[in-house]
Amino acid sequence: MEKPCNSNRQFLLLHLLFLSLLVGLTNSTAAPSQDEQSKIISRFQEYLQINTAQPSPDYQKSTHFILSQANSLSLESQVVEFVKGKPVVLLKWPGSDPSLPSILLNSHTDVVPSEYSKWVHPPLGAHIDEQGNIFARGSQDMKCVGMQYLEAIRRLKSSGFQPKRSLYLSFVPDEEIGGHDGAEKLAYSDVLKNMNVDIVLDEGLPSPNENYRLFYAERTPWWLVIKATGAPGHGAKLYDNSAMENLFKSIESIRRFRASQFDLVKAGLKAEGEVISVNVAFLKAGTPSPTGFVMNLQPSEAEAGFDIRIPPTANTESLEKRIAEEWAPASRNMTFEFKQKVTTHDDLGRPLLTASDNSNPWWTLLEEAIKKANGKIGKPEIFPASTDARYFRQLGLPAIGFSPMVNTPILLHDHNEFLNQAEYLRGINVYESIIKAYTSFIPPGRDGVSRDEL
Ligand SMILES: [Zn+2]
Fold this sequence. Notes:
By secondary structure, the protein is of the alpha/beta class. It is 34% helix and 21% strand. The chain has two domains: 34-214 and 356-448, Zn peptidases (Aminopeptidase, 3-Layer(aba) Sandwich); 220-341, Alpha-Beta Plaits (2-Layer Sandwich), CATH 3.30.70. A hairpin with a 2-residue loop joins strand 13 (288-289) and strand 14. Residues 108, 141-142, 175, 203 line the site of zinc ion. One of its GO terms (biological process) is amino acid metabolic process.
């Protein structure tokens, strides 16, 4: 019984040695020095200080800045204007095996406008407070991610890492106004075809807790306008079938449906992205008068608009039936039209989602890479709104939404958007790990070696 004890100790020592080696290997690049850290932060600040707010982003400055970063990293670069004045900046780190499909990391350069007076620090200042919080429009959405891609490449290059697959970065101009001149054009271009992309990463959301959030799909918008007509009449008269009465019956029905969906979220049975949301966007009725509206008249027309968001897993046929039969029935003198009706299926007719299990090697690799960088991961989610990722999923490409921000309040499009600098730096480590894993991935069966032989 003594001997095994001895060899146990030896085993333990060896095991410890192996573990320390492993730790050494996984943290292949040392933490950046104080000087290097402040350089990283000031590059981020520089990007944040460029005014790329819609409706008139300074694309000249942002393009110049991105190209100068690319230049300092010896990346190949190309500026494509599918629409004049709306530059898509493409950067490439060529892989050692050009026969392997590539990786695309997407980010948008534009940001939403800010109400300057409601910010504690100016939205273009990129001021850092005593807690290390960097205040700027775009600090979460999503200049952080665009710069983190570049900083991760900088670190990998200086460590001597060589990717097998080519890595592309796309900086697109107009996500905040729909992405039609940027990501959508790119997705359907020969430029993208020639890039031979296998997987796209795009933006996600910050997490108020310690778990990173990964998005495998998003809800698609249906913008519905319903219109009621009815006999006009004196404001003192009670009668059936007025336009307003017809419209209110629909609104009651829509509000009941909204509550049923919201209850599922409140009860914790479904996440926000998993239910159909419907919110009133406008109400339009009444007969205008010089002082407001005519008060003793029941109008002959009334309209309401709704922003509906649908997860790709929803039964859209039953929703369409509900709209035609309950929300805008012809029997109640109602009509409806869609101002926008985005499909929940891709070009190949499949539900618009990226597999979030081990049937998708990119999903598994991403989870492993985040864990390797000491990150925790929450349950896969459906993005509650829209991002440019939908254009790539539409093609049938896998696309995952991810913005590495934990313990961070969600301030996208809000006043006082900020990101803590320590969190920003952590995100660079995470992308370093992801880029390494993604660009090194060789699918089983390549190079004549099957999984069985391995
Ligand atoms: Zn965004």
